């Protein structure tokens, strides 16, 4: 049953949830610390709605471009190339540039996320095993241990075979979320609003949005998953798979963020599971469950960058050598990423950078720009040109987030490593 499940609505829903449900949800209390309880709750819901809207823009533009050019399916970068090539004459010469730009954004985001996932899994195992076994193994030892199962998981090349991994990862992460929520709501001390900010620290606002965008980082999976559906018409729409997935994720994100900050206040850590009591075995299990969930997500995380790189290389490789080339390429890139992770084991400061620079581009700016370029020749902007106004407002917001969020993230990284 599993090999064909990816093409069903259920398989698509599982992949979409897994594409976003990872370490980002555990950082939501930190986002609420930056944004405050009231603003954080409202703004997080708004960002999730914005994400759904931008996914509809991206997928809708891709589907219309496919019909217009009689192409079966288009990926993220290919959609940009086709849209620019058929857009206003002034942008047509930049079609290849648009394609290459998106491919590089996807590569940077995916590979950086793989490193973040790897260090998260290693750190989670380190905290649990060292505490329970009373040993003092360093993080690098666990990075090496985590790399062993990753060698096999990252060799999976087809989405359909990743569905069971995504399903298991979802179960593990939701279980970890449930246990975490229990401790957030049922601690020894009652939760209190005293000393909790309701509004944002305005200087940290770009980092708030960057952290939330990083949490819903699944934009790079959207078109590959939609292209793999048996009934792609069920992907969009008010009752579509995207809305179902993001509705569930919105609840999980906001519950975790709100009660995490409410419980721990300014002491909340980058990953809320680090705030849970280490002497409690059940609390300790959340780190292990979350770490295993992310480990099972590695195949899906690796899918997008490997797909991009393989499309660059495939026609240059003789058919008889393509299989061994795929194996060697995946193994070699994993070793390079492992070396980076070992060289910079504290990758938490890079979360904001991934959210602002990569997600700000991929989630907001690029879908809006593609929608504008596609509609411009026909001026199909609706009554009173409301679509044009909406796209321009979102483009300004995306540019603001990209510039200010990236600047703030780089400042934090420089301050930490000085």
Automatic annotation (TrEMBL):
It is a multi-pass membrane protein. InterPro entries: AA_transpt_TM. It holds the Pfam family Aa_trans. Residues 7-410 form the Amino acid transporter transmembrane domain. It is found in: Membrane. Keywords: Membrane, Transmembrane, Transmembrane helix. The chain crosses the membrane at residues 12-32, 38-59, 101-125, 137-154, 161-185, 205-223, 235-255, 288-306, 327-344, 350-374, 386-410. GO terms for cellular component: membrane. Its main location: membrane. The keyword Membrane applies. This is Amino acid transporter transmembrane domain-containing protein. It comes from Culex pipiens pipiens.
């Amino acid at each position: 049953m599993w090999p064909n499940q990816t093409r069903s609505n259920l398989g698509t829903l599982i992949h979409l949830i897994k594409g976003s449900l990872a370490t980002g949800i555990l950082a939501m209390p930190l986002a609420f610390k930056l944004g405050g309880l009231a603003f954080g709750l409202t703004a997080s819901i708004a960002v999730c709605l914005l994400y759904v809207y931008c996914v509809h823009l991206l997928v809708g533009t891709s589907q219309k471009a496919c019909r217009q050019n009689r192409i079966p399916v288009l990926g993220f970068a290919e959609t940009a190339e086709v849209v620019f090539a058929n857009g206003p004459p002034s942008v047509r010469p930049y079609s290849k540039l648009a394609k290459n730009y998106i491919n590089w954004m996807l590569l940077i985001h995916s590979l950086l996320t793989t490193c973040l996932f790897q260090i998260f899994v290693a750190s989670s195992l380190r905290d649990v095993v060292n505490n329970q076994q009373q040993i003092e193994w360093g993080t690098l030892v666990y990075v090496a241990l985590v790399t062993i199962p990753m060698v096999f998981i990252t060799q999976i090349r087809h989405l359909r075979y990743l569905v069971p991994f995504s399903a298991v990862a979802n179960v593990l992460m939701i279980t970890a979320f449930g246990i975490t929520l229990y401790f957030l709501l049922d601690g020894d001390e009652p939760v209190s609003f005293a000393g909790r900010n309701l509004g944002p620290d305005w200087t940290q606002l770009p980092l708030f949005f960057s952290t939330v965008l990083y949490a819903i980082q699944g934009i790079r999976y959207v078109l590959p998953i939609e292209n793999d559906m048996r009934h792609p018409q069920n992907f969009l729409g008010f009752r579509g798979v995207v809305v179902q997935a993001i509705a569930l994720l919105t609840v999980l994100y906001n519950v975790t963020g709100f009660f995490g900050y409410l419980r721990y206040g300014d002491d909340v850590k980058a990953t809320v599971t680090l705030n849970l009591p280490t002497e409690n075995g059940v609390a300790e299990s959340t780190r292990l469950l979350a770490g295993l969930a992310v480990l099972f997500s590695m195949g899906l995380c690796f899918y997008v960058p490997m797909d991009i790189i393989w499309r660059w290389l495939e026609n240059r490789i003789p058919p008889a050598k393509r299989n061994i080339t795929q194996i060697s390429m995946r193994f070699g890139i994993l070793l390079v990423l492992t070396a980076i992770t070992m060289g910079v084991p504290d990758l938490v400061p890079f979360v904001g950078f991934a959210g602002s620079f990569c997600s700000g581009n991929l989630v907001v700016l690029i879908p809006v720009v593609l929608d504008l370029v596609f509609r411009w020749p026909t001026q199909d902007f609706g009554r009173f040109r409301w679509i044009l106004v909406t796209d321009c407002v979102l483009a300004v917001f995306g540019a603001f987030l990209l510039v200010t969020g990236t600047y703030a993230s780089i400042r934090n990284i420089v301050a930490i490593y000085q």
